[in-house]
């Protein structure tokens, strides 16, 4: 009996010790971000041609008969087709399980779960990826101004998008994969330009600015070769970033890569902290700086590409969110990465609400809203801080 009591006391001591390590500011940031995502998501699923109240939207999203039904998630996440001849009729599994049926949904639930909720989930994934990608790039380059856009990833993806839409229109069905590949290739070009018996944070940033400028000019030139106004509008939507029309296909496309990128980012937080100490200190601690820098850059490119593949080029999220989180929880990447995982979706979902409702019924690309929010905030940071540029 005594041994059991001693064991229980020891377990409780370990629990209390673990609870003592939880950072209050990080916990507050995460809870506030979750609140923003939930509130913004409910607003999103309430508005549209079929109008709903917030209470009705809440009941539709959190309907236990749908939310906790494994068959529903299997159809939505694994790509089974949702067939409904008339809204409100039972849905039938088409390709996953023969003769199996999904629970009957009313009109509101069907619209929420098959049309509106995927847009919110894509916004969560995009915000998460861009925020973490920007945080990693800032550590790799030791520069607060680094982001997927600055280091050429976004411009490379944008150029391949325009090339596909204007020149190789037959490949438009592969546009998300082509965009991701373009971002990855662009960063490889940046790395090759910056390489001179190794790379350095300054050379990486300068090479990224060069590649972004050149690719951006080529993007602008491509518009002159587009004869179809529809193609131009589609290209503008991709190059400014938009969640309009997002569905479960985009969720399925981004989710696996997001899980991989977030897991690698969290496991790499120690290496990111070491890189912030400088190359000489990192080498003295036994780190192979070039290998680690390239590997971590690959994780950041993976995260950014997953975002670009489903939403296009959304500016400022990867630059601003790490700054916001750093001001709250500090520069320790064990906390910073976690904060970005929560704060990125909050900014993205909130911005998408503004994009959808600002000029209702016209929907503007969410990238315009993030630019309008991020620009003034970045100017505020520049005015507030004595030194800007190096972490």
Description:
This protein has helices spanning 2-20, 24-46, 54-61, 64-67, 70-78, 107-141, 153-166, 175-194, 201-222, 229-240, 248-267, 269-276, 279-284, 289-311, 317-329, 333-357, 366-384, and strands at residues 82-83, 92-93. It has a two-stranded antiparallel sheet with strand order 1-2. A hairpin with an 8-residue loop joins strand 1 and strand 2. The protein is built from 17 helices and 2 strands. It is globular and about 65 Å long. Residues 81-102 have low confidence and may be disordered. It is an all-alpha fold.
What proportion of the residues form beta strands (DSSP E)? under 5%
Backbone CA Rg: 23 Å
First and last CA, distance? 55 Å
Please write the string of helix (H) and strand (E) elements.
HHHHHEEHHHHHHHHHHHH
The level of helicity is over 70%
Q: What average pLDDT do the residues reach?
A: 79
Total strands: the figure is 2
Number of helices in the DSSP assignment: 17
Can you summarize the main beta sheet?
2 strands, antiparallel
Q: Could you list the spans in which at least 5 consecutive residues all have pLDDT below 50?
A: 81-102
- Envelope shape: globular
What structural class is derived from the secondary structure elements?
mainly alpha
């Amino acid at each position: 009996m005594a041994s059991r009591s001693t064991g229980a006391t020891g377990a409780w001591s370990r629990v209390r010790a673990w609870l003592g390590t939880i950072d209050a500011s990080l916990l507050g940031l995460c809870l506030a971000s979750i609140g923003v995502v939930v509130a913004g998501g409910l607003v999103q699923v309430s508005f549209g041609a079929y109008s709903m109240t917030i209470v009705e939207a809440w009941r539709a999203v959190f309907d236990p008969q749908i939310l906790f039904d494994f068959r529903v998630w299997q159809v939505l996440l694994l790509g089974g087709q949702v067939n409904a001849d008339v809204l409100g009729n039972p849905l039938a599994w088409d390709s996953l399980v023969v003769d199996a049926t999904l629970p009957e949904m009313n009109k509101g639930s069907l619209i929420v779960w098959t049309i509106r909720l995927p847009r919110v989930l894509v916004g969560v994934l995009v915000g998460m990826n861009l925020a973490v990608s920007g945080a990693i790039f800032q550590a790799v380059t030791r520069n607060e101004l680094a982001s997927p856009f600055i280091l050429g990833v976004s411009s490379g993806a944008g150029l391949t998008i325009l090339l596909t839409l204007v020149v190789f229109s037959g490949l438009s069905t592969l546009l998300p994969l082509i965009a991701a590949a373009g971002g990855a290739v662009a960063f490889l070009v940046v790395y090759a330009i910056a390489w001179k018996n190794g790379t350095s944070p300054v050379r990486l940033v300068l090479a990224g600015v060069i590649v972004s400028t050149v690719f951006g000019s080529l993007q602008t030139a491509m518009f002159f070769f587009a004869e179809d106004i529809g193609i131009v509008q589609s290209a503008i939507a991709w190059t400014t970033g938009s969640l309009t029309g997002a569905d479960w296909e985009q969720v399925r496309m981004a989710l696996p890569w997001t899980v991989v990128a977030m897991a690698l980012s969290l496991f790499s937080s120690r290496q990111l902290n070491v890189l912030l100490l400088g190359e000489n200190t990192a080498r003295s601690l036994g780190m192979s700086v070039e290998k680690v820098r390239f590997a971590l850059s690959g994780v950041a490119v993976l995260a950014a590409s997953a975002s670009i593949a489903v939403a296009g080029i959304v500016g400022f999220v990867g630059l601003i969110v790490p700054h916001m989180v750093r001001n709250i929880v500090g520069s320790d990447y064990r906390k910073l990465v976690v904060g970005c995982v929560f704060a990125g979706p909050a900014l993205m979902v909130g911005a998408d609400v503004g994009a959808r409702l600002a000029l209702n019924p016209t929907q503007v690309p969410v990238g315009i809203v993030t630019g309008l929010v991020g620009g003034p905030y970045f100017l505020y940071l520049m005015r507030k801080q004595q030194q800007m540029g190096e972490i």
